Amino acid sequence: MKVNFWDNPAKAVRSQSFIKIFHHYIAEELRTRLTAKAKRSGIQIIEEAKVFGSFKSKDVDVAVIHPTNGPLILVGVRSQMSSVGKNVLTYYQDIVGECISLQERFPMTTMGYAYIHPLHVTPWQKEDGKWVKEESPNHTRFARMYASIGERDDRLYKHLHGSYDQFAYAVVDFDSDPIGVRDDIVERAVPDLDMSITTFVDRLIATFLRRNVWMDDVFTEPVSLAVPDDDEADEPQLDETLVGSP
Predict the structure, then answer these.
(1) C-alpha dihedral over 201, 205, 207, 210, to 10 degrees?
(2) How far from each other are the two terminal CA atoms of the chain, in whole angstroms?
(3) CA distances from 185 to 122, 143, 165 (A)
(4) Distance (Å, rounded) from C-alpha 166 to C-alpha 118?
(5) Which among 61, 81, 97, 185 is least surrounded, fewest beta carbons within 10 Å?
(6) Phi, psi of 42 (to 5 degrees)
């Protein structure tokens, strides 16, 4: 993404080639976690899927679609590489509205959103010849905003609209070499909620599995959720303080 952006920032933003790299990353992460049985049954990971909401169709950035039962997981993706403070509230309203529309139609679908902001907005020239203004976004404020719509209640999800099941807020240093993801900034702002992009797909799948406990053959279980098999669980554990005692 860094190479794509800095090669031609105006083109990368206008053509969406930059953000589509991120779409594809999330799609591939989901795709690698599909079971063989899920693939045989026709479940697909689709990028730019046209999904009908409650009032209009929506091109969802990444979707896990069952051929007869519809959306299982829906993920929105967005980046803001300039004018962050100026436009962030408008986009915030948009993503809440998008969430409500899709949840009204598909209340059981696991919903996620991944958002990228640069650590700093470094000036670059737009196609009209004007320069993007330098900016230091208020990441603490934005992290708290996204956290407020990033944890739909597991027990009330059928009746709760406008809040995503999982949210990833990535503050990215595009000027560093190598590129850096500043999860530490987000963690300080929202210490009680995991919003890291590195755990995003696992969190989506974990939510899906909790919500659909009878569907154990769609995704491989995230390592963090894995439980020991029966033989391992039943094996007696020795108290190390007693080993070698008479």
Answers:
(1) -160
(2) 63
(3) 19, 9, 22
(4) 21
(5) 97
(6) 95, 5
Closest CA to 167 of 96, 111, 209: 111
Share of the chain above pLDDT 90, in %: 73
State pTM to two decimals. Answer: 0.87
Q: How far apart are CA 107 and CA 113, in angstroms?
A: 16
Which residues lie below 8 Å from residue 126, measured CB to CB, with a gap of 6+? 10, 132
* Sheet of strand 57-66: strand arrangement: 44-52, 57-66, 70-79, 110-118, 166-173, 180-181
Beta bridge partners of 70: 66
- DSSP string computed for 2-67: HHHHHH-HHHHHHH-HHHHHHHHHHHHHHHTTB-HHHHHTT-EEEEEEEEE-SSSEEEEEEEEEET
* CA pair distance 165, 109, nearest whole angstrom: 9
Secondary structure (3-state) at 244: coil
Query: Of 26, 32, 40, 79, which is closest to residue 200 (Cα–Cα)?
Result: 26
Q: What is the dihedral of CA 96, 192, 77, 14, to 10 degrees?
A: 100
Task: Record the tokens describing residue 214, joined without a space.
Answer: 């009878």
Residue corresponding to tokens 């989506």: 204
One-letter identity of residue 148: S
Which SS3 state, helix, strand or coil, does residue 184 take?
helix
What pLDDT, in 10s, does the model give residues 115-155?
999 999 999 898 888 999 999 999 999 999 999 999 888 77
